[in-house]
């Protein structure tokens, strides 16, 4: 069977990986009509080009947590006819569930390290663009378990270190001094902790206190 011509928007913050994938997909008959390095760029590209499918990495600037998959959920809500293939190193169960909540047709979620050949990726793109579903077995396993992993386990080592110091009562300035990093770097880690713990800026309660309470509850500290 001859696969149809696919128009693709590619969202990947690594320039080297992004350029490599554009070249590989082009050689396989896919037209990458736009690339994006951030979630806003992805949303704009999909709105402008209305591709057959968007290939989305989960972790994108500025916090490198879940900006990409959040954008994928938004694309799904706005333009259901655009297929979504999440292509990442990470499994974000809660957001994967939200992505699939409206139905699995036209949705894929593959882990980068488990795709051995370009032909596998291209095949997945065609299946998703044609309304099919492609899910890595690891993603399915996590979803079946209900995403029971503790939120604290989603933190990077540095984010956990920052949160531990927050729990000890340190300010951002104090944490920056202790870790010998800039205060701006600490602010970014704190923002990532808030995001992973689901603490929105609109919360009336102190997010810092709630993050520490969640940390203590999950670690028994």
Automatic annotation (TrEMBL):
Pfam families xrefs: GerE, Response_reg
InterPro entries documented for this protein: CheY-like_superfamily, NreC/VraR/RcsB-like_REC, Sig_transdc_resp-reg_receiver, Tscrpt_reg_LuxR_C, WalR-like
4-aspartylphosphate: modified positions: 57
Key words of the record: DNA-binding, Phosphoprotein, Transcription, Transcription regulation
HTH luxR-type domain boundaries: 148-221
PROSITE patterns reported for this sequence: HTH_LUXR_2 (PS50043), RESPONSE_REGULATORY (PS50110)
Residue ranges annotated for the Response regulatory domain, each copy included: 7-127
Protein's name according to its UniProt entry: Response regulator
Origin species: Streptomyces nogalater
Lineage: Bacteria, Bacillati, Actinomycetota, Actinomycetes, Kitasatosporales
């Amino acid at each position: 069977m001859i696969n149809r011509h696919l128009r693709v928007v590619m969202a990947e913050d690594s320039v080297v990986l992004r350029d490599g994938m554009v070249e590989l997909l082009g050689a396989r008959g896919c037209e990458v009509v736009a690339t994006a390095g951030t979630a806003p760029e992805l949303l704009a590209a999909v709105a402008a080009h209305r591709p057959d499918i968007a290939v989305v990495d989960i972790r994108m600037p500025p916090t490198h947590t879940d900006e990409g998959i959040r954008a994928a959920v938004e694309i799904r809500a706005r333009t259901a006819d655009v297929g979504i293939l999440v292509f990442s190193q990470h499994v974000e169960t809660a957001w994967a569930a939200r992505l699939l909540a409206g139905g699995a047709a036209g949705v894929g979620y593959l882990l980068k390290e488990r795709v051995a050949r370009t032909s596998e990726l291209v095949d997945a793109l065609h299946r998703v663009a044609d309304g099919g579903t492609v899910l890595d077995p690891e993603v399915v396993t996590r979803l079946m378990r209900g995403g029971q992993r503790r939120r604290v386990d989603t933190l990077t080592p540095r984010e956990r270190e920052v949160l531990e110091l927050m729990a000890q009562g340190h300010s951002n300035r104090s944490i920056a001094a202790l870790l010998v990093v800039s205060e701006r770097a600490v602010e970014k880690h704190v923002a990532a902790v808030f995001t992973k713990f689901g603490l929105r800026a609109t919360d009336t309660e102190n997010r810092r206190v709630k993050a520490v309470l969640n940390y203590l509850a999950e670690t028994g500290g």
